[in-house]
Amino acid sequence: MTWVDYMIEVAQHSKDSAAHWFRYLRKYVDKCGTIFTMDDVEALCNNDALTPFQKVSARAAFREGSPTKAHISGLNKPGQRDSLARVRAKIEEAKA
């Protein structure tokens, strides 16, 4: 199974969920060019199985400087433990 075939199958399963679609895209955004080429991205986007939203977001996800790529790349970053610790401390203060 090629990357394009896999992503077409994923697209069919995530037609109703942008979050689900972005979850699959984020696995590949930082690997652009190593696993597949931009021709593969265009082949994916030219498939009728994808919704218009999926086509637009897939193209934008692999384009340098796009807000969609920045958003998806941000999803790949680990959570901020310090921020969580501060929120927990505020919750504990409010309980006291």
Task: Characterise the protein shown here.
This protein has 96 residues and is mainly alpha-helical. The chain has one domain. Helices cover 68% and strands 0% of the residues. It contains six helices and no strands. It has helices spanning 3-13, 18-29, 38-45, 52-61, 67-75, 81-95. α2 runs parallel beside α4, α2 (18-29) packs across α5 (67-75) and α3 (38-45) packs antiparallel against α4 (52-61).
Brief synopsis:
This protein is mostly helical. It has one domain (3-95). The chain contains 6 helices and no strands.
Low-pLDDT sequence parts:
none
Helix content: 55-70%
Q: How many structurally independent domains?
A: 1
Counting copies of identical and different chains, the oligomeric state is: single chain
Query: Averaging pLDDT over every residue, what do you get?
Result: 84
Shape: elongated
How many strands? 0
Tell me the fraction of residues in β-strands, as a range.
under 5%
Radius of gyration: 17 Å
Question: Largest sheet, if any?
Answer: none
Output the structural class.
mainly alpha
Helices and strands, in order, run as: HHHHHH
Distance between the termini: 57 Å
Q: Treating each run of at least 4 consecutive H or I residues as one helix, how many helices?
A: 6
